[in-house]
Amino acid sequence: MAKFRLDETDHQILDMLIENTRTPFTDIAKKLMISAGTVHVRVKKMEEAGIILGSSLTLNYQKLGYAFIAYVGIFLQNTSQTKFVLERINEIPFVTVAHVTTGKFNVFAKIRAKDTQHAKEVIFQLDDIEGVYRTETMISLEESINDKKRLMHSIFKEL
Which long-range contacts (CB under 8 A, 24 or more apart) does 153-158 make? Predict the structure, then answer.
């Protein structure tokens, strides 16, 4: 399969969809002065090429009562236990992200909790997983940067 090439119109469509995935194609078309059918076809091609992988919804966890964020570095007794430990971590709904990493930790996880007491309970659940040697926790005081567009714009400049 030939490599899919994005042009400036594709970049602009992606820019608007990253801002709000629910933006109607007709609104995008009006802003770009193209037809809604053209937007639909281009989005479909980007989906088929694997550039667009579905769409997502961003929740305001603070309004839902889950404003507390902590990052937990997880040390394993043996790296061979990684798959098993990840399966157990996946059973804890308050762990929203987990990465297998190199360096200091074997696994690095993000948790969301109601408060410090709840976070402590989640961390203890992580500590209790068979194969976890110990954990190291960092509390997030503030999410200062969360900008998907900056990376996308840098990638577009390279293309």
Answer: 153/15, 156/6, 156/11
Q: 51 and 92 share a domain?
A: no
What is d(CA 74, CA 101) in angstroms, rounded to the nearest whole number? 10
Residue 148 falls inside a structural domain? no
pTM for this predicted structure: 0.81
Cβ contact 28:43 at 8 Å: no
Question: SS3 for 141?
Answer: coil
Per the structure, the count of domains in the chain is 2
Assess whether 74 and 46 both reside in one domain. no
The residue type of 24 is P
Rounded to an integer, what is the distance from CA 46 to the centroid of its chain?
Answer: 19
pLDDT digits (tens, 9 = 90+) for 53-108: 988 888 899 999 999 999 999 999 999 999 999 999 999 999 999 999 999 999 99
DSSP helix/strand/coil, 45: helix
Domain residues for the domain of 43 are 8-57
The SS3 call for residue 107 is strand
Q: Is residue 155 part of a domain?
A: no
Q: Which residues pair with 76 in a beta bridge?
A: 132
DSSP state of 96: E
